[in-house]
Amino acid sequence: MAGTVPGENGASPAASPTPDGASEHSTSHGSGHGRGPLLALTVGAIGVVFGDIGTSPLYAMRESLARTSGAPEMAVLGVLSLIFWALILVVTVKYVIFLMRADNKGEGGTLSLMSLAQRALGRRSTLIFFLGLCGAALFYADGVLTPAVSVLSAVEGLREAPGVGRILTPFVLPITAGILIALFMVQSRGTAGLAKAFGPITAVWFLILAGLGIMHIFDDVSILRGISPHYGILFLIDNGFLGFIILGSVFLAVTGAEALYTDMGHFGKAPIRAGWLVFVLPCLMLNYLGQGALALSHPAAVENLFWMMVPQAAYWPILIMATLATIIASQAVITGAFSITQQAVQLGLLPRMNIRRTSETQAGQIFVPSVNMMMLAGVLLLLAMFPTSSQLAAPTAWRSPAPCSWTACWPSSSCVTCGSAACWSASWP
């Protein structure tokens, strides 16, 4: 899961790094990462790798349409086209097809890619070092923004709750803060026992997304036109600079895509690719198509598209599942922040700090108290500054493409191109 690190099979946090940056234990056992039954690993990947991107339907379509102008039909078709092709080009083509081939002895992530590039050069590079630091910093930003916007967007479903929405509205922010405080407080006890349920719960959540989408596609089946890329292109041309602003909101649909690369060392390439292509991508697209059809047939629903899709009879169970899904997504980025901290310490990018193991039987379960408290403070500060998910979506929209874009910067450097080419040539079938 996201909390695994180089040396997850038992190496101590203080394991000395090898010349190419990974711990000695990781180097010798990198080929063992991701071993196990494909189905079990795929279900596990669904819970950890795709948790973040799986909560995007709660707010991505809504925020993108909120900034549009002009004919409502063209806006809906244009935004849907942009979301669809963002999922195809950014996640499927960039990560699944290309970037996942550039692994560092089975490991993925910004710091692993930095080590790969330095090994290809045969010496340390200031530019690569700087890019690695910036990539890690963006991951920490993701660890603060994702819990805030994800959990808040789920709890905001209380505002539309049948019969009691107005009564519960004042309690949305306190409930969100309480959930997040509890989530950060339990980190010191470890989450190894709960992690087994992450995959099945998130899989059920994706099935709910698909079911809601199928239910509403028939509100206006002409929404299927939105799959065509020309609607997205026309939308960007017609809106000019506003289209560029809206594109930032569209990138909310691919937030968390970098997890496909970051968590590659634990689950392996095949389970992640299978989970995305066979299960996650179809479920997400069905939901976005359903949201688009609802927006065409009932334009007033644009104010809160996802929750307007939910039938009253199933509202509370789906609200509970949405909250659980956002908590799981938040847990993944929190443990990911712990993981990248340990990697940075092993590589000498950060000073030695207190890193605790929270499980004696399951490797890779770690807790970094200082990082945990700083992230909690950052999350609560964000909630105080941006008390609604729509307000939080603005900084999140500009954060979402940052890790993807930063990762894309690596191949532009000649040294990384050499490292990636060497890796791809070795792994290409």
Core attributes:
429 residues, Amino acid/polyamine transporter I, 2 strands, disordered C terminus
In short:
This protein is mainly alpha-helical.
What this model shows, in words?
The chain is mostly helical and 429 residues long. It has one domain: Amino acid/polyamine transporter I (Up-down Bundle), CATH 1.20.1740.10. The protein has 21 helices and two strands. It has helices spanning 24-29, 38-48, 51-54, 60-66, 72-98, 110-121, 126-155, 165-168, 172-185, 192-217, 229-239, 241-250, 259-262, 264-267, 269-297, 305-309, 315-346, 369-385, 389-399, 401-409, 414-427; strands at residues 356-357, 366-367. Strands 1-2 form a two-stranded antiparallel sheet. α7 (126-155) crosses α18 (369-385). The longest helix has 32 residues, at 315-346. The two termini are 27 Å apart.
Itemize the secondary structure elements and their pairings:
Layout: H1 24-29, H2 38-48, H3 51-54, H4 60-66, H5 72-98, H6 110-121, H7 126-155, H8 165-168, H9 172-185, H10 192-217, H11 229-239, H12 241-250, H13 259-262, H14 264-267, H15 269-297, H16 305-309, H17 315-346, E1 356-357, E2 366-367, H18 369-385, H19 389-399, H20 401-409, H21 414-427
Antiparallel strand pairs: 1-2
Helix pairs in contact: 2-10, 2-15, 4-12, 5-11, 5-15, 6-7, 6-21, 7-9, 7-17, 7-18, 7-19, 7-20, 9-18, 10-15, 10-17, 11-12
